Amino acid sequence: MSNLIRLIGRRLIALPFMVVGVTLLVFLVMSLSPADPAVLALGESASPEALAQYRTAHHLDDPLFQRFWDYLVNLCHGDLGQSFKGNDITHLVKSAFPITLQLTFIGMFLAVIIALVLGIIAALYRDRWPDQVIRVISIASLATPSFWLALLMIQWWSDVPGGTGTFQAVNTGWVSFGDEGYLRQITLPAIAVALPNSGSLTRVVRTAMVEELDKDYVRTAIGAGIPKNIVVARNVLRNALITPLTVLGLRIGYAMGGAVVIEMIFNIKGMGQLIFQGITLNDVNIVQGVSITVAAAFIIINIIVDMLYVLVNPRIRSV
């Protein structure tokens, strides 16, 4: 138990340092951009006096370290700064980030269901035709870009008679979770997130299941007369699914990045639309705020998954 507490504590201590490191990296990339924020905010027709006043008001002439420190202090207070148009970036992120989280987790929930079903079937029918078919499916899903799949679904569903009445191909607004029409608007984007991520998870589940099925305790239990289905359900599944849990954390992070792109395609008002707006308007403050938020979420999710792995792994928990 002491080892368990020590491992969890180590990850919690590392969390703020990792977030600060990511923040520094994003801040440096944005600060070293050749574009002048004052010109981007006021336009090329602005007078030199107005540009100088803007730089002074936003501390753009301060040393880089001082600007980063001020930004970090404001970030600790939940302030991501303002866009060039004067909008509060924190408010924009608070409105958009929950939508991206919903799309990510619903998509990954579907991916996990697909991976569990296909991975277990492939392991139980190892080297037989179901396994071969599932291998082809998983490799095809791995090779399929999520943005291409999203575009394909929009094109295909728009051509199906009555298709847009069943699922909404392009969103004109966002319906809150639980309200009427929510499933209709989230289904296609969630599938676009799920399918590319299900391929790698399927292969991991299959590999873990095969390794567990080859262990001595499984052969001993089956030899003692216990039905194979019971051994698989009670022991093999529980032990085999520990390993895919670590991969799941990485896939959730990748899925969040993919969801940002899918949101732009389906016109969902999430972080994707927000970062697209920042890029279109050359607003580095928006891009910086969104990038830091997504990166911090990626780190936090992976640390949570690592902690869950420690909790469910009996070899670590029993120490």
TrEMBL record:
It is found in: Cell membrane. One of its GO terms (molecular function) is dipeptide transmembrane transporter activity. InterPro entries: BPD_transp_1_N (IPR045621), MetI-like (IPR000515), MetI-like_sf (IPR035906). It comes from the Bacteria. Keywords: Cell membrane, Membrane, Transmembrane, Transmembrane helix, Transport. The chain crosses the membrane at residues 12-32, 103-124, 136-157, 241-266, 286-312. Residues 97-309 form the ABC transmembrane type-1 domain. Belongs to the binding-protein-dependent transport system permease family. This is ABC transmembrane type-1 domain-containing protein. It comes from Actinomyces graevenitzii C83.
